[in-house]
């Protein structure tokens, strides 16, 4: 079974709500091209496949809807190394800038928990298909082949990344590599 990403959005779970006005102010100041002020701003939550709460920011302006994705740490006490959205942001940013690995563009990282309660980052929204069965039932053989080839090419590009070099650079940038 396959569903479009946008078809898996739901209302934000009450335990995951945050200050949308504060987020809107932050995004307007830190995301290039973010349409603000907005009368048509909505936050919905993705209901699948993530350990960090993930939200869709929908910005209606001038008759069009622009979407962004926000990933944040969950609320409450967590292990320091768990739910490292800061690391996710840096990895996505590096992959997008330095490789051919297809990743969404990341716009900003906020480590100030006073904005929405936990650190978060905002990235590009990409509409796509979520397949719950990797056998891809109902998909034509030609399309299934194309999907598998694209997945293999993406994995090959990811495996060509020199992770040890990146790790050394990352640790040096955090002061942990000295």
TrEMBL record:
<dbReference type="InterPro" id="IPR002575">
    <property type="entry name" value="Aminoglycoside_PTrfase"/>
</dbReference>
<dbReference type="InterPro" id="IPR052898">
    <property type="entry name" value="ACAD10-like"/>
</dbReference>
<dbReference type="InterPro" id="IPR011009">
    <property type="entry name" value="Kinase-like_dom_sf"/>
</dbReference>
<dbReference type="InterPro" id="IPR041726">
    <property type="entry name" value="ACAD10_11_N"/>
</dbReference>
<feature type="domain" description="Aminoglycoside phosphotransferase">
    <location>
        <begin position="43"/>
        <end position="164"/>
    </location>
</feature>
<dbReference type="Pfam" id="PF01636">
    <property type="entry name" value="APH"/>
</dbReference>
<protein>
    <submittedName>
        <fullName>Putative acyl-CoA dehydrogenase IBR3</fullName>
    </submittedName>
</protein>
């Amino acid at each position: 079974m396959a569903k479009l990403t946008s078809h898996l959005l739901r209302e934000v779970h009450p335990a995951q709500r945050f200050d949308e006005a504060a987020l809107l102010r932050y995004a307007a100041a830190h995301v290039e091209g973010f349409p603000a002020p907005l009368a048509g701003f909505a936050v919905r939550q993705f209901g699948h496949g993530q350990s960090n709460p993930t939200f869709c920011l929908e910005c209606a302006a001038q008759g069009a809807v622009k979407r962004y994705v926000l990933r944040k740490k969950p609320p409450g006490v967590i292990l320091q190394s768990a739910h490292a959205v800061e690391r996710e942001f840096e990895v996505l940013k590096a992959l997008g800038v330095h490789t051919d690995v297809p990743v969404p563009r990341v716009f900003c990282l906020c480590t100030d928990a006073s904005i929405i309660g936990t650190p978060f980052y905002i990235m590009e929204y990409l509409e796509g298909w979520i397949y719950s069965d990797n056998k891809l039932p109902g998909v034509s053989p030609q399309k299934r082949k194309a999907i598998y080839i694209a997945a293999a090419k993406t994995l090959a590009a990811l495996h060509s990344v020199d992770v040890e070099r990146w790790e050394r650079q990352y640790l040096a940038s955090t002061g942990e590599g000295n």
